[in-house]
Amino acid sequence: MIFYWLIGGIVITTLTFFLSIDNINLWKSLNASAIVALAYCIVLIIFNIKLFPLKRKIVLIAVFVIGVFFVFKSWSLAYEQSTWQKETLLRIRGSISRGVLNVSLNNAMLHVLSNYHSQADKNKKSLKEIYNELIKTDSGFIETLKLSQEDSPLIYNKVLSDTELVFIGQEIFVKGRNPDFANASGKKGMVQVRATLTSKGVKYESEN
Predict the structure, then answer these.
(1) pLDDT for 36-87, tens place per residue?
(2) d(CA 56, CA 49)
(3) 187 three-class SS
C-alpha cells in the first residue's frame, strides 16, 4: 500500500512541476510542486496515522512539523540567495550593457565628427550630410552602428539635423534601473543610453 502512496506522490508532484513550468523563473514551478508535495504528505499522514498508537502519533506529528519547519527555512534561504544572485548579476549585466552601448555610439559619433572636422572650410558639409554619406558608403560605420538590427543591443537615430545628431542605444533583454521607463523600441524598463553629437563633441547620458 505504501508503495502506491509513494508512486502517487511522485507522479502528482512531478506533473505539478512541469505543468506550471516557467522558463524565466524556475522558482514558480518549484514552489508549486513543493506546496503539492506538502499537501500530499498531510493527506498521507491523515489517512495512515490511525494505524499507530497514540504516542507514536504524537511523535510522528511532531517530527513532521519540525521537518516542515526546517525545510521551509532552508527553502526560504535558498530562494533569497538565488534572488540576490539574480539581481546582482542583472546589475552587473546592466553596467556592461551601458559600457558596450557607449563604446558603439562613441566609435560611430567620433567617426562622424572626425570626417566633419577634416573638411576644408569651403563647401563644408553639415553633420547630417556627413552621416548620410557614411551610411551609404562606409560598411565599417554601418557595422559599428548596427542600425535597427533585430538583436541586442539596438541603436536608433533619434534626431538628425545639420548641427546635431542624437542616437539612442537600447538593450532588448537587459533590465535597467527603472522598470517603468519607456524605451525607444516601445518596450519598458530596458537599459537605454543617449548620445548627442554636435560640432563641439559628444555628450552621453544614461537614461535607464
Answers:
(1) 888 888 887 787 777 778 788 888 888 888 888 888 888 888 888 888 888 8
(2) 9
(3) coil
For 46, residues 6+ apart whose C-beta sits below 8 A from its C-beta are none
By C-alpha distance, which of 103, 95, 94, 105 is closest to 167?
105
Among 125, 149, 27, 4, CA closest to 80:
27
Cβ(63)–Cβ(45) below 8 Å: no
Q: Which distant-in-sequence residues (6+ apart) come within 8 Å of 194 by Cβ?
A: 158, 166, 167, 168, 169, 204, 205, 207
Give Cα separations from 119 to 107, 114, 127, 169, 200 (angstroms).
19, 9, 11, 28, 15
Three state DSSP letters for 104-132: HHHHHHHHHHHHHHCCCCCCCCCHHHHHH
Cα 87 to the chain's mean position, in Å? 9
Q: Return the residue matching grid coordinates 553596467.
A: 95
Q: Is the distance from CB of 168 to CB of 196 less than 8 angstroms? A: no
Per-residue model confidence as pLDDT tens digits over 157-180: 777 888 888 888 888 878 888 889
Grid cell digits, residue 76: 526560504
Give residue 154's region: left, alpha or beta (phi > 0; psi -120 to 50): beta
